Amino acid sequence: xxxxxxxxxxxxxxxxxxxxxxxxxxxxxxxxxxxxxxxxxxxxxxxxxxxxxxxxxxxxxxxxxxxxxxxxxxxxxxxxxxxxxxxxxxxxxxxxxxxxxxxxxxxxxxxxxxxxxxxxxxxxxxxxxxxxxxxxxxxxxxxxxxxxxxxxxxxxxxxxxxxxxxxxxx
Length: 170
Description:
This protein is of the alpha+beta class.
């Protein structure tokens, strides 16, 4: 399934591969890679409130700022909440970034191997093979409660709306 002109990058329309998920949808499973090259399943994170921050590349200003912001916010959330960042960056680049940026309250995972997350969550940009910018909030049962596909990839997500969705589940 492809969604043509679903988002833009600096004004250029792009195609997203996968479904457009909505609140109330069951959260799909996906296979991701940790920074130490272990394969993990997204469903293994179900059971807690889950905020998933999706970024095109940690080596860009907005993506770095988004990841830092959610890392900072995670320090103020209870243990019943997990915050993940997903990108197509290689695990080695993610590990370097997290070390340099003191990212220690969230888990940063890579979708580079199979693009499993991007295809399941509708965040894979066909033309660039990167993730689009998006945020998902899942309840402990694995149901999506909040979704934002940021229409222009270079813009920030609505942080407060995502955090309010998390707080509403506590």
